[in-house]
Design goal:
There is one protein chain. With 82 residues, the chain is mainly alpha-helical. 48% of the residues lie in helices and 5% in strands. Strands 1-2 form a two-stranded antiparallel sheet. Helix 2 (21-30) crosses helix 3 (37-47). The chain is globular, with a radius of gyration of 12 Å. The relative contact order is 0.24.
Amino acid sequence: MISIRDYFNRIDGNGDGQIDQNEFRQLAQQLGLNRTEDVIDAVFGAIDADGDGLISRSEFRQWWDRGEMRPDTGAEDAGTMD
């Protein structure tokens, strides 16, 4: 199993410590989620709590802790994001 931090880092393709909309769309595609871009953008916006157009580690962790749309990744729920 991987840690939640490692899972975040897998999604964060450019390694800048944030998930942008492109990275999020790629994740949705990899997971086989057949959703319109509008739906994917709405989900992204719901996770992006501060509305800056990026999902930070803390926003990702808050979303993860809520258990919303969590993919079956084998990621452990233990550990910190920082």
